[in-house]
Amino acid sequence: MKITKHGEELILAGTPPKVGDKAPDFSIVNLKKQIIQLSDLLGRPVLISVVPDIDTRVCALQTKRFNQEAAKISEVTFLTISNNSREDQLDWCAAEGVDMQMLHDTELKFGQSFGLYIPEIDHLARAIFILNKEGIIVYEEIVPELSQEPDYDQALEVIKNL
Q: Which of 42, 66, 77, 137 is deepest in the core (most CB within 10 A)?
């Protein structure tokens, strides 16, 4: 799959799962050094927000938006994943007052299993996946231009209808 960054074409190193697929399981560490495994989160809907670099403007906007929504929608698990280091994520969350579940994919296990790793820039593609209680993908958006925000309204509409 091809995406762009400021118009420059980039290629994902894998094939992302699609709506109707069972989401690949993953184990990633959160900011509290706890291992978060997708299979342990099932039983309730999960929104996975993937950002290329938490220290950039659009990634910050996306993470703050879903942090606000997570505070309002308690029956959904919200996750933000980037391949920034734990320290980068901790510093950013402290500076921005964000307290949602942040996972750091520094080993790129999530990025590779979800087909979102971009070798040319060593980051993940910007994406949103929504899973139902059984772990089936009911919504996915891989933003075609990395410098653009995702469609928050459409994702939140799907969440409200689960």
A: 66
Query: Which two three-digit tokens encode residue 74?
Result: 């308690």
Q: How many domains does the chain have?
A: 1
The residue count of the chain comes to 162
Quote the domain boundaries for residue 114.
2-160
pLDDT tens-place values along the chain, 162 residues long: 789 999 999 999 999 999 999 999 999 999 999 999 999 999 999 999 999 999 998 999 999 999 888 888 989 999 999 999 999 999 998 888 888 899 999 999 999 999 999 999 999 999 999 999 999 999 999 999 999 999 999 999 999 888
Residue 66 in contact with residue 77, Cβ under 8 Å?
no
Cα–Cα distance for residue pair 102/141, rounded to 1 Å: 19
- Here the CATH number for the domain that contains residue 99 is 3.40.30.10
Which pTM does this prediction carry?
Answer: 0.95
Q: Would you tell me the crossing angle of helices 57-72 and 152-160 to the nearest 10 degrees? A: 20
93 is catalytic: no
Calculate the alpha carbon distances from 152 to 63, 75, 77, 129 in Å. Answer: 11, 18, 16, 12
